């Protein structure tokens, strides 16, 4: 009978958020004086307030040795926080975690790399950080380099590497650690198709060797292919734990996935993104984005990308590519509507990414922020060759409201 590789009991993670009172400019001297007074008196600043935010709340579950666990959920659900706690990068506020075996994690591209060191030196540095001995690194060195495909740049400082080279080398080191538990957080989306295929194959081989894998991904086909069990996180809690197909179906079918809202903040944000469910049922894709900013935005620009069942982009548009008849100027808040009649989509599950730009710099980017299921209202009478799927040329209409 398989033993538990991971046991989580009542785990919670709390962060303290500082809110600065509006309407008053605080100088550096004010901040230093108030900080010194708080240090002496342990009293809060008169111009700020604190709020407790629980990224995770009372999580309890068990993962058997050799399971591949696909962790899914909306942005902000607590997926990355959970993996950081399991990787011992941060401590939980409440609860207890029991891990049986060595843990290797790949949570961010280039974590544990020194930009001034070469690829060769960083293999030894990163391997040591992950818990590998020098002899172990030497024994696997050639295999790591071959997997990462960086032989030509092995003695080049990694600060000159592209993001793709970074992630290839980082994944190669982590994947060849031969840990009992491997933790991977969405980094597969960074590499190209060839590298992603290699990574998936490596994860499969790790799982086939009886090791435990925790994988966060917005690509549902990756979860279906690799996971033996799946976990749905929602608002910091476990909403569902079970068979991947059932959990994914629950995730994609929840009505609230068609809308995301957030309050105004001290930086430019999209406060509401809404997919019209009525129009979606008729085969039309209508998306409304509302944004706000504490300062005027020089040239408000909104962009959207629809991703297919595999997570790859199907099509995208923005208000510069397909401008509305009237463009707003220097607005602090507004709404824009994207309308695509007779959406050229096949029946399946999709995700939506959105970004807000001032015409020059990206102010906010929300990858895979919404999920929706599309049912073609008039399916074709013939099967389309899947080799031609994955891209679409569209000419939508944008309207600022």
Care to describe what's here?
This protein has 401 residues and is α+β, with helices and mostly antiparallel strands. It has nine helices and 18 strands. The chain has helices at 28-41, 79-86, 119-129, 134-148, 163-175, 193-208, 220-226, 244-253, 277-281; strands spanning 4-20, 48-64, 68-72, 94-99, 103-106, 181-185, 212-216, 229-234, 237-242, 259-261, 269-275, 285-297, 301-307, 313-318, 331-340, 348-357, 362-374, 397-400. The strands form four sheets. Strands 5-6-7-3-8-9 form a six-stranded mixed β-sheet, sandwiched between helices. α3 crosses α4 (134-148), α3 packs across α5 and α4 packs across α5. The relative contact order is 0.11. The model is unreliable at 381-391 (pLDDT under 50).
Q: What amount of the residues lies in strands?
A: 35-45%
Termini distance?
61 Å
Q: What kind of sheet is the major sheet? A: 6 strands, mixed
Secondary-structure element order, N to C: EHEEHEEHHHEHEHEEHEEHEEEEEEE
Give the low-pLDDT segments: 381-391
Which strands sit side by side, in order, in the main sheet?
Answer: 5-6-7-3-8-9
Structural category is alpha+beta
Mean of residue pLDDT values:
80
Proportion in helices: 10-25%
Report the principal-axis shape: globular
Please work out how many helical segments DSSP would assign. 9
> What's the Cα radius of gyration?
24 Å
